[in-house]
Amino acid sequence: MSSPPDKLGYGSVRLDRTGQAEAFDAIGDRYGEAFPHKEGQISSAQWLIDLLPSGARVLDLGCGTGLPTARQLTDVGLEVVGVDLSDGMITLARGHVPAGVFHRADIADLRPEGPLDLGGFDAVAAFFSLLMLPRAEIPLALRTVHHLLARDGLFALSMVEADVDDFAIPFIGSTIRVSGYLRDELREIVEAAGFEIVEESSYTYAPAAADVQPEVQIFLRCRRRD
């Protein structure tokens, strides 16, 4: 799995996370209040649970508060490592899910020979975390996930369907920048990164927060191809 740090192309991209972590530091536990119903996320995590042996190692990429995913996975005996850019979210996750291990880090830190080596994983969950990246970085992030996964490893991904790139939106009293794709393009990008899409589902979701617009959430259940 070792390869030069720039093999994925990160050297050609300027990483800009200005304001992203600070927004989620300010949001804190209000995130769960704004998104009280997470049926798609819970269902996709259950898909991982049904296919993984007890003790399998799972990366929760963009773990947020640790709820519901990290707790759902640790409750059945899986070894969970969570990563998030927000110090505030990591603090909450450690309190909510004491059985998990959590790191404040950027997904770019996990690239081959990057600054944070967490080892390999049997599965990765990335629920609404890649949408926080500009489009230029999303294929790199997907290749990083591929790099972290064992052969035939599982990948549960969710995104919001939207044709936007690094677009500023109001979000639970803060401003964040988000990116998205229409679903056909999302499928193409995921497959090009080395994944087989096993299942797909979507949900129309109306968040409880007044400043968060209704959205279509796409959930892809994938397996790593070599």
Give a concise summary.
By secondary structure, the protein is α/β, with parallel strands linked by helices. Helix content is 28%, strand content 31%.
Between the first and last Cα atoms, what is the distance in angstroms? 12 Å
Number of helices: 7
> What's the β-strand tally?
9
- Along the chain, the helix and strand elements come as HHHEHEHEEHEEEHEE
- Rg of Cα set: 16 Å
Report strand %: 25-35%
Describe the largest sheet.
Answer: 7 strands, mixed
- The unreliable regions are 1-5
Q: Widest sheet: strand order?
A: 3-2-1-4-5-9-8
Mean pLDDT across every amino acid position: 91
Structural class: alpha/beta
Globular, elongated, flat, extended or rod-shaped: what is the shape?
Answer: globular
Helix content: 25-40%
Write up what this structure looks like.
This protein is α/β, with parallel strands linked by helices and 226 residues long. Strand 1 (57-61), helix 4 and strand 2 (79-84) form a beta-alpha-beta unit. A 7-stranded mixed sheet has the order 3-2-1-4-5-9-8, with helices on both faces. A two-stranded antiparallel ribbon has the order 6-7. It has 7 helices and 9 strands; from the N terminus they run αααβαβαββαβββαββ. Helices cover 28% and strands 31% of the residues. It is globular, with a radius of gyration of 16 Å.
